[in-house]
Structures are given as structure tokens and as C-alpha cells.
Amino acid sequence: MISIQVSFFQRHLFLFKLSYFLKTMAKLRNLSITTPILFALPLRSEWAVNPVDINKPMMAGDWDDAGSLKFSRGYVMAKNDANFLYLTLDVVSDTGNDAGTNDYFWLTFDNNRDRNITSGVDVNYGLYPGQPNKLGRQKYLGPGSWTGLLADPSNSGVVQEFGASPNSDVSHRIWKFRLELSEINVALSWPLSTPYTYFGFRVRSSNPGFTTDFPGDFYKDFTKLRQLILSRKPTIPSKDLGPVVGSVGLIPTTKISATGRATTDSGYYHFVENAAFGGTLNLIGNRTKLQQLWAAGNTKYKVEIAAPGGSFAKLISNWSNYRWTGSTYALESFAASANGYYQMANPGTDYSIDDLLIQFPTTALLPGLYRIQVTFFVGSSTTDIAAIQELRLFIDNHVPSTIIESVKHGSNEVSACAIETIGAAPDGLNFRITANDPEGNLRGVSFYATYGAGLSTPIYAENYLPAKGDWEGFVNKLIPESGNWRPPQSCAYSFVLSVSARTTNGYSWVGQNNTHRNLTLLVG
Fold first, then answer.
1. DSSP 290
2. 418 and 361 co-located in one domain
3. What is the pLDDT of residues 386-403, one digit of tens each?
């Protein structure tokens, strides 16, 4: 066993080198990464089985079992699902029910997790002036310096409450947040690291009077930020789990059809329709079955894969998983034996990804329907089977083709970078575009124009519907189908064709392609 203590300042350089080393050597085991901030404990978010409604009172039950961390004026609490971080600043010391926004907060995230203030990247949340339930967002420019409030749309929100909480029966100030994970640059699908970020905050109270930063001066020095570790441990209904392989990422294997494509319910953590698979995949075991196998001593297993039309061969992979020690996460590496067999990790141990049977990349695989089989053996046997399951996955890492075939003004082709004069209505442009996925895994098409200072105008959009089946898209489609498209004003335009694949890694969508063509249009 090799144990390496990593200083807080060296953490990210170490993780970069570590991921490379694990890929090439796959020999290090049980690397211990010390929690930063002078060994201060991180805030561990807990999984939100149902989305937290921040409009409900704190005591309504949505925050039960949330992760919690004490600070000098109260507690910070956290839950998350696949889309949002739900955070509460439970300021138990603020017992004055003041009107307006003289009481306020700042909430900061180190979006690139480098523990340095990066201009235009790291984010700070605060209140809109005079609006205690409207969340504002700005980017850092430097220590204690920010942009103005960003105007781009957001699904994040904040609600102020004055009342009791699980931490105090005396009414006090509570700030409840719903934050889009994409806004703080966190994804549950990270293959080589448990999802985490660094954060800090300020709370101010007028009555009683105090201004408290946690940690002190965090907005000037990101080396002081506290680590927040997100959960990726959803509670999938047992009826939906497969008998041995319970899920692929968040997608229960019972929701994967014989064609290898998945469809989940519209309210599920990750809603997909007839979706193929790609990227790096996690096969998650059925917890109940794994506990039974562990108790019986049947911990040896193999994983096999069969290419389209082919026979089974052993699937050999190396991966890492973080084990919680009680104060930090220790990185452990896993690999097959020389004979191609794996040993199940103790299902009673707390890992960042619980019950992970195998993690493997699919980017080198050609598109098609693959069969994957997981077999557990009795004791040390290689023939007596304790449990077995085969599943089918349609794997497709090819991105759809995106081509702006032509831009025409009347019968004349308009070349890139041209300056074209558009006459009075109905004069305008027409286009021919291609958005095509031969494997039938197209998810959405968006064709639009950008111009001016952050302006855009839609031209054409089409999204997947189940009635489309294995949707391949279209080739050389005329846009608009009749008439012409007219620009809203004279300006330089960029015509953008963006196409997404209906392919998932089990946690989020993967696969997107886009192209653009630029020209200047003068409206006569």
C-alpha cells in the first residue's frame, strides 16, 4: 500500500499527474488525499431522492438527512441530485426579523477548482437590490472584484425564510438555494474524481449586527475556500434494478430495451428517450444481491463483452474509486487479475460510487449493439456460477454530421465572409442544412443566427419525439420550407448549426457537433 499525503496547495497538480499515472501504470493502490484547509472537514452533500422545494418551510421534511457543517453563526446544509445543488445557510444567530435586504449573503464557488481567483470563470451569488428572493450571479474579476450581475437565463434560485430549523427551535434567518450544477461547473459523471467544488460565503445581519465570512476573507484568497463533496448515490427503486447489474450510471438496466437503448420516466433523475450509450460507463451492482454474494463469500466475478455479431471476450479495465475514511476520501485503484477476474469491493464500505462493478471507456468501440455479461462465481471457482446477468447496450460515440450546405440569396450562392444587401420584403435568404446520424441517435437540431452584442435569433429547430423511432435526421433540408428568412437588422451574422446526439453515459447527455458560417447582411 502506498500512502501519499498531498498538501492543499499541490492537490490539483497531483490529481492531474495521478490520473495519467493510473492510466499508464494501474499499479498504485489506496492513495490517500488529505482534505484541504489545514485538515478541515469538507461539507458532504447527501443525495436528494426527490428535488428539494426551496419554497417549502425548512421543517417540511425536504432537508431531512442533509449534509451539515457548522460555522460560527449557524450551519450550512447540502443535498444534491443529478441537476442541482440544494444549499441552506442556516443562520441561527440572526434572530432579528428585519425587512428588506439589509440582511444579505454572498456565496462563492471556485468553478475551475484551482484554488485561485480566475477572472471571468469563478462565480459569486448575491441578492438583487431590494429583492430578497431574487438570486443574482456575477463573475470574479480578481480579489474582491466582480462583474455586474449577469443577465443570462438561469434555473437557479434563492428563498429567504425566517423560522425554525433542524438546528434551532428559535426563529432565525435561513437562506435556501437551488443551484444548477452546470453553473458551478460540476458534473456527476466525472470518471476519475468524486464530484466536488470549493466554496465560501458571507452572511450579514442588521439585528443583531454582524458580518461573518466563512472562511475569513475567502473572496480575496481562494486557498481558504472549503471543499464541498457532492453525492452520486441515488436511491433507485429496487423494482427497477437489474438482478446483478442494477444500473448503468443512473439508468436502471430494466429500463434498457432489447435494442440496447434506454427510456426512463419523465420525472426521473436523468430523463432519456430511446437513448444509446457512449463515453465512459459505470456498471453499478444491485446492492441487495451484492450483499448476499458478499455474505456467501462469492466475491469473484468476470465481465465479458461481445461486439455486434461476435462472441464474448473478457472485458479488462482499470478504474479508481474514492473511499470515505471518516475525514477524507482515499483514492483506490481497481483492476482485473492476470486471469481477467475482478474482486468485489465490500458493499458495506462507503465509496464515492457505491457498488461499482466496472468502469470502462467506450470511445474506441464502433457503433452497434453490444452484449455485456457479468458472472459471479462460487468461492474461488471459475466454473460454478453464483449469479449471472447479460445486458445489451447500443454504443455510439459518433457525433452527428452538421453541414451548412448552402446559403442563397435568390438563386445565387452567398459565400462565407460576403457582404450581401437584402432588399425589401419578401426578399431574404434561404438555406440548406444537413443534420444526420446514420445510427439513428439524433436528439436535437438548432439552427440560429448570432449578431450584435450577444443577440441571437432562431431560424429552425427540431427535437426528438418517440414517434420518430431511431431518428437519423435529414440531409440537404431547405430552410425555410417556403419563403425567405429575413435578418432583423443590418449587421455581421454568424449562422450556427448545432446538433446533439441522443447518447448518454448514464448520468448526462454526451455527443454534440456544430458548425457556423459568417457573413454581413445589409438590410436595404
1. H
2. no
3. 999 999 999 999 999 999
